[in-house]
Amino acid sequence: MIAGSTDAKIMVRRCLVTFKPFRIFVVGIGFFSLCFLMTSLGGQFSAKRLGDSPFTIRTEVLGGVESRGVLRKISDMLEVILKRMDSLSKLDNTSTTDARLQVFCVYRFQPASLVERIQAIAQNVSNMAIRVEQILQNSMVQDGSSSQCEVPRDPRFPECPGKVDWMRARWTSDPCYAFYGVDGSDCSFLIYLSEVEWFCPPLAWRNHTQNVSPVLPFIFSHSQAAFRTDLSVLLDQVGTGKESLSFMKRRIRRLAQQWATAANRLDAKLEQQWRDQKKILVHVGFLTEESGDVFSPKVLKGGPLGEMVQWADILTALHVLGHNLKISMSVKELQGFLGVPPGRGSCPLTGPLPFDLIYTDYHGLQQMKQHMGLSLKRHKCHIRVIDTFGTEPAYNHEEYATLHGYRTNWGYWNLNARQYMTMFPHTPDNSFMGFVSEELNETEKRSIQQNKVNNMAVVYGKEASMWKQGKESFLQILHRYMEVHGTVYYETQRPPEVPAFVKNHGLLPQHELQQLLRKAKLFIGFGFPYEGPAPLEAIANGCIFLQPKFNPPHSSLNHEFFRGKPTSREVFSQHPYAEQYIGRPHVMTVDYNNSVEFDSAIKEIMRTKVEPYLPYEYTCEGMLERVHAYIQHQVSVGSAGGSRMMGPLFVPLPNTTALGWASNVTAPSAWPPLSSLRLLVSQEGQSCVDACQSAGFICEPAHFRFINNKEALLVDSEINHILPAFSVVRQECGLQREPLLFSCAGHSPKYRRLCPCRDFRHGQVALCRDCLQ
User: Fold this and answer.
1) Boundaries of each Glycosyltransferase family 18 catalytic domain copy (predicted)?
2) pTM attached to this predicted model
């Protein structure tokens, strides 16, 4: 029978039989014996079709003492019916079989799928029997043992009475409660609140051997991960239907050979180290229809591509590293992968999370909260949030952010700050995820140097709006020395409003843009977009990147773009990473408002010869190395305060720049290993980010727990994102009481920070020298 067909509707109408004092509605195969059984019983019984399947049956039993006897008889007779169905299902699919089985009211099945249909009905009747038994138990409790369902007053579960009151008033607000067996009775409330959620104590009369505690962790038995070089499976998983997905797949294909080469190199470098194969879900929230997906329609119209570049590279890195990957691009897929109950997200997951790690973004995190309910809090240590501009600890801690003015539309998730993963290593409190740029071989590098056009400049700005607002003056200076090229999107009927001297190529495919950059001497930025991938691609193709200096620096305090972002970071140029980690001669940062300085910079660029350059951390091998280290070592990142402080620690507070070594601190399981730790005390008002960088190190937030040492310093602790630090006013040390507020970025003129710095690998600031061992 096909659900919704005309024949099925006729059959249902004919099979709607009303008896007094009960009625029954059966969808599926009707058996004379089943109908005879029900017509001979008292009480009131109702079975209704649910969901998409015509064979899904739900039972509802109403009544008191009389219903108990009725339900017992139904429960007993169901076994007889199942046995009869089992014997029928073993019959051959013949005309004899067809004659024996008929739907009540003369509706006949086609014989081709007879056995399968009988099996489906048998399964549903079995489910019906289980449900009847549950209702019987509830009926017995309510009728003869109502004291067993009195709301407990247990000091260990102080919220239980209030939760029961809430359930009484609101249990119909979300279908997930009925999914877990809630039927409006106090017994069902207590069962739910003690076995699905954890607000009430377990009921003594319940069989707890069949229930798995919702707070028990799930431990995966991992196999060994093996590097992959075939990307065909990944390409199939990414899917189709959106231009954003097509862009990502084109990128994956174009870089396939470089990923394969990088995998072989890293495999040799790791020397057969055991690598756990993780079960990983990637949910790209910003591309879901539920988030609005403003990116996909703009892919071919000059819209931002940086996020899609990064997500394509993340997917490829996880696949190449050999992990078991699932990809979600819709809320429906997310629900299916997580196994969330139907409804509006009020109920938690009862089983273990089926993934070791979940990579998502802020949009996806919000969607997970809506559909996972209370489970998100329990499982959030598995989450990694791809966060372009970073989230500082003061904004991440919900209560602290609310009380101290750091609350924004983002942040406030109470994660460990290292669970946020950025596009560039600008926020050491977070983990640096990054992306990749194409790597040239030596032959390609020589060819580029030989064919450079010394007076050719390409402007970084695909949208016509970027060319407005005071760009004319320095473009005129540039035009005096160089031929200016643009890649501004435009429609045929409406050319973009750019200066007449600009040779506009329109929006170019990636391989054509690469060819243009290989010829150009200069790649010039307008000040926006901030921190995109294009400058690194230009530098990798032998261009010098010229960018504006910001004075005062841009931040959430003075610039609309950063307002509301969960960071207080000050941006001193369009691309701080290029300025700080690459620098001259590949990168020049000047004041565009100073025409003399700008003119001088153009002349210097024309005199300077550079080779194509790409930092190791933005190669395929560099990204694989970094992501591998995170996956294998950031295992317990969610429990920031879980480790005990180890041993005494020497801290040279009196000296401004004295550096202390943690040679007497041991923690064998620490990562990064403590051999990388260097202690530094900042200047007044200086952050640990700046203090460590000034000494040639990187601030390492994972080491705060080892230097936040009360036994060594004999001081009190408090909740403040500046701590641990030395108070200039009080002339005393203060320790951090809340581990989620350990912050490299925090600074105050009243404090000198105690900073845990570390060394780093050449070309890979995310990892210390011993971090791969």
Assistant:
1) 176-757
2) 0.76
